[in-house]
Design a protein that fits this description.
Helices cover 19% and strands 28% of the residues. The chain is built from five helices and 17 strands. It is an alpha/beta fold. β4, α3 and β5 form a beta-alpha-beta unit. It folds into two domains: 171 residues, Rossmann fold; 66 residues, RNA polymerase II/Efflux pump adaptor protein, barrel-sandwich hybrid domain (OB fold (Dihydrolipoamide Acetyltransferase, E2P)), CATH 2.40.50. The radius of gyration is 18 Å and the shape is globular. It starts with a strand and ends with a helix.
């Protein structure tokens, strides 16, 4: 079985791990300049590094669909820079999973594959996909809907260690992002963790820096640039989150359910 996952950020990477461990071959599509925050657990890093490893699973950057299939056959995950996922037409995968998390559908169609799965809000099962997987933290996280939609985006980050919006680092303005701390560093409330051009970016909570943008990334005002984990577990920086695994479990359920109906 072959799955194309649109997006290779942290949630998409959790989905990829779940499916890869279930022996489904994985090809992931990305943009040319990914802006993932939790870079240590994102297969999108392959775009910059050519290869990357998340939880002992390797992803390799490929230049073509043919090369991507060869990488899958070797047991690794393939990543292609293909913003519109045009490779789907050539690959004809069993599953297409839209995990871009754009909060809206950017072009996924129910006819893209036998089983098309939308992740999070912006999709309607039975209209533009066959199933939708819930991404909102709480009771329904990871639940599969074969009719209807996921919960609407509230704009409020999930509660981690008693903090929501405070744990997110955002850009104060348009400019070039330059981090001062790195992923895994401990920061204190009030620390300047980065600068956008010459404007300081301050931490609003103490904890471990779980994610931060690459140096030199162009950002806009209020763009998410980093993530502080107040639980202070450094080892969490190198493993996918409970949320990513839960969503990945829902996607795996949907894939197997829909494949059985093939």
């Amino acid at each position: 079985m072959l799955a194309v996952i649109k997006g290779a950020g942290d949630i998409a990477s959790g989905i990829a791990l779940r499916l890869h461990r279930a022996k489904i071959k994985i090809i992931m599509t990305e943009i040319s300049t990914p802006t993932a925050i939790r870079r240590t657990v994102c297969f999108s890093e392959a775009v910059y590094k050519k290869e990357t490893v998340v939880e002992d699973v390797k992803a390799v950057l490929c230049e073509s669909a043919t090369q991507a299939l060869d990488v899958c056959e070797s047991g690794d995950i393939a990543v292609i820079v293909d913003e519109k996922a045009n490779c789907i037409k050539e690959l004809k995968p069993d599953f297409v999973i839209d995990a871009i998390l754009a909060k809206k559908n950017l072009g996924t169609d129910i006819n893209d594959a036998h089983a098309v799965i939308g992740v999070g809000p912006g999709f309607t099962a039975g209209v533009d996909c066959h199933a939708v997987v819930e991404t909102m933290r709480g009771h329904y996280l990871g639940r599969v809907y074969y009719e209807g939609k996921a919960q609407d985006n509230t704009g409020i980050p999930g509660d981690i260690g008693g903090y929501t919006t405070e744990r997110i680092i955002r850009s104060p303005e348009y400019g070039v992002f330059n981090p001062i701390f790195d992923i895994g560093d401990t920061v204190e409330k009030g620390d300047v963790v980065a600068c956008v051009d010459s404007t300081p970016v301050v931490a609003f909570v103490s904890g471990v820096l779980r994610g931060i943008l690459r140096k030199g990334t162009t950002v806009c005002a209020d763009m998410k640039c980093g993530d502080i984990d107040p639980r202070c577990k450094i080892e969490h920086c190198d493993t996918v989150s409970d949320k990513a695994l839960s969503v990945g479990g829902g996607v795996l359920e949907a894939c197997l359910h829909l494949y059985a109906e093939k």
